[in-house]
Design a protein that fits this description.
The protein is mainly β and 189 residues long. The protein has a single domain, classed as Jelly Rolls (Sandwich), CATH 2.60.120. The protein has 2 helices and 13 strands. Strands 1, 2, 4, 5, 8, 11 and 13 form a 7-stranded antiparallel beta sheet that branches. Strands 3, 6, 7, 9, 10 and 12 form a 6-stranded antiparallel beta sheet that branches. The radius of gyration is 19 Å and the shape is globular.
Amino acid sequence: MRRISLLLILVLTFNLQPLTFNRISAAEVTKEGGVDVLYNWDFSKGGEDWVSCPVSNIGKAEIAAGALVLECNGYDPYIFSPAVDIDASRFTDIIIKMKMSTGAGDAIFFITEDDQKWDENKKAQAGFSGDGAWHEYKIDMSGSKYWKGKVTGFRIDPPNDGKPKCEIACIKIASKEKKFLCAAPVYTL
């Protein structure tokens, strides 16, 4: 009881804000080319929320030259997304503009409000290409029968082979198939 009283006195005396916990807040839906976009991470404008996300077998994740740069250094590399709140019946596409130094393929995994376990059932294959060129990938998540309800997280799994360097210009969550043109990062010397 004394702790609560002391906390209340501190809050009132010093106009302190009460503690808040990271909760998933609904993103604002925007229109882009007639398509609803729920999330739009454009790494030329920042992306620190991704840099602080957990990774596996990635030496570091950083924002550099307008891209999220992932230095893969082991088998089964991946990066988790920030917390999301996706209505799976409405938003089915994950669009990623990325270039990789080597490797090919792999997947996007996800979890839902009702099933928080990361497993092979909740994934969609991705045709990533490690040719060093920028590609825009549209991964249709509705192909998984488990993409339903509320999706609360996803992870990007680059290829296992070759320990690629991945540079991601943007990631979008959209309502239907649509070709998006994310601006390529601008390199300055």
